[in-house]
Amino acid sequence: MDYIAEYKSKLITAEEAAKLVKSGDWVQMGEFVMQPKDCDAALAKRKDELTDVKIRLTTMSWLPEVCKVDPERKHFIMNDWHFSGTSRRLMDKNLCSYIPLTYHEARSLYQDLDVDVSFQPVTSIDKNGFFNFSTSNSMASYSTKQAKKLVVEVNSSAPVCLGGLGESIHISEVDYIVESSTNSKLVSLPELPVSTVDQKIAALVMEEMMDGACIQLGIGAMPNTVGALIAQSDLKDLGVHTEMLCDSFVDMYEAGKITGAKKTLDKGKMVYTFAMGSDKLYNFLDYNPVCASYPVHYCNDPYIIAQNNNVVAINNALEVDLYGQVASEASAGRQISGTGGQLDFIIGAFHSQGGKPIIALSSSVKKSDGSLVSRIKPGLSPGTIVTVPRSITSYVITEYGSFNLKGKSTWERAEGLINIAHPAFRDELVKAAEDAKIWLRSNKLYA
Ligand SMILES: CC(=O)SCCNC(=O)CCNC(=O)[C@H](O)C(C)(C)COP(=O)(O)OP(=O)(O)OC[C@H]1O[C@@H](n2cnc3c(N)ncnc32)[C@H](O)[C@@H]1OP(=O)(O)O
Ligand SMILES: CCCC(=O)O
């Protein structure tokens, strides 16, 4: 079938697309590295005609024009499902708000949300009339379905990401098409410096890895270091069922470590819901049938995750308290990131036969004034949000060791966690545990 006539009839300029927005509307503006830049710029130009336009996006990888032109947030109200550094810096000036999200529940959330206009970034149309959501399958099929007016912004540089479900939208479901004026390459994440602490933690994580493991890696330098160690290891037949696909999966695949042969679900496929990395990753993904993107209600459903055996889920956290509560998203009232899919994968790995849900974090962090603070805390401070409840927390790994909390009582947890805390804080943590009646006479410090 020839879609040329339909394409031409739906083609509008970014300025025309921006005119679809009215004051008070909810506007959807892309996810992760898929950015509807032309529609954003055209909407920003309409600033003086509009008030209270509410915008939703996921993990801002760019500074949208609508934020730049409205430093008092009178016209555009920005909201992010999962904070990036850019959203944090906007929030510090009260220019961005967080929307709480347990990622795999996004489909049900969108069923109740208003999407008046969606500016949805896509790849060029294919011969069957489909636009692909490229690296951000994630929630795209839910927000586009919910949109009263759906505009796709076509970026011909974005890779076509083959998928198992929800990775594309047909032209018949689209109201309008805008062609990007720049077709810019997707943004590359900066390479993160790897510290000796990251290397020590990654080496301890490797001790928990086995042939045939089905892996999920979170964001940051430490999970990437684990990926690099796997690529150099003797591990065999690893599988991938992850939320985010990043560069280190390319390294592991090219080193022959990933075959997906032992997976019980999506055998042979590297399953993910969004991808962020560098050109190396984006080139690898383009039309690559080894990878399958899925919407997040499938990818992150703990009971889908758990259908694979030996799921090893490796995620980072900001703090862990002596009871085993994991805080990964906000500290003392400051939103850092979000719940995202951390809880999904920790529960999924918990239920997977042979699975290992791992929280890996450095034992301490240096504050801007140079002082050292422990990441193992007696309790969480007000404004610090629990991402993983203590009843599910299992492996916690710092550069001082690994401790599995699964099924452990409060006094066993206190002992195990204090023994992997930074030595400079162990005595004060013991004192706090005694005061909280979670330290017994028989408890020991081992170092
Ligand atoms: C994309 C994925 O992760 S998929 C996996 C599932 N999802 C998740 O795990 C979501 C929750 N986890 C996360 O968001 C991340 O893993 C994090 C935030 C815990 C760690 O990510 P990293 O990129 O390694 O964090 P990084 O060390 O760069 O610090 C990020 C910010 O937190 C601040 N921060 C770090 N530790 C602390 C702390 N203990 N207390 C207060 N703030 C802290 C840093 O100062 C920095 O803020 P700034 O950039 O505004 O200065
Ligand atoms: C939107 C979720 C991203 C994450 O889990 O980190």
UniProtKB/TrEMBL annotation:
Location in or out of the cell = Cytoplasm
- Provide the Acetyl-CoA hydrolase/transferase C-terminal domain boundaries: 277-433
Positions that bind CoA: G218, I219, G220, A221, M222, L318, G341
Pathway(s) annotated for this protein in UniProt? Lipid metabolism; butanoate metabolism
Domain Acetyl-CoA hydrolase/transferase N-terminal, residue spans: 5-180
Keyword Cytoplasm attributed: yes
Name the SUPFAM superfamilies for this protein.
NagB/RpiA/CoA transferase-like
User: What GO biological process terms are annotated to this protein in UniProt?
Assistant: acetate metabolic process; acetyl-CoA metabolic process; butyrate metabolic process
Question: Looking at the UniProt record for this protein, which Gene Ontology cellular component terms does it annotate, in alphabetical order?
Answer: cytoplasm
Catalytic activity as recorded in UniProt = butanoate + acetyl-CoA = butanoyl-CoA + acetate
**Signal sequence, start to end:** none
**What superkingdom heads the lineage?**
Bacteria
According to its UniProt record, which residues of this chain constitute the active site? E243 (5-glutamyl coenzyme a thioester intermediate)
Cytoplasm keyword on record: yes
Gene3D superfamilies listed in its UniProt record = 4-hydroxybutyrate coenzyme like domains (3.30.750.70), Acetyl-CoA hydrolase/transferase C-terminal domain (3.40.1080.20), Glutaconate Coenzyme A-transferase (3.40.1080.10)
Question: What's in the keyword line of the UniProt record?
Answer: Cytoplasm, Fatty acid metabolism, Hydrolase, Lipid metabolism, Transferase
Query: What is the predominant subcellular site recorded for this chain?
Result: cytoplasm
Q: Which Pfam families match?
A: AcetylCoA_hyd_C, AcetylCoA_hydro
- Any one GO molecular-function label of the UniProt entry: hydrolase activity
Q: What EC designation does it have?
A: 2.8.3.-
The task this protein performs is described as: Coenzyme A-transferase that converts butyrate to butyryl-CoA.
Family affiliation: Belongs to the acetyl-CoA hydrolase/transferase family.
Q: What is this protein called?
A: Probable butyrate:acetyl-CoA coenzyme A-transferase
Organism this protein belongs to: Syntrophomonas zehnderi OL-4
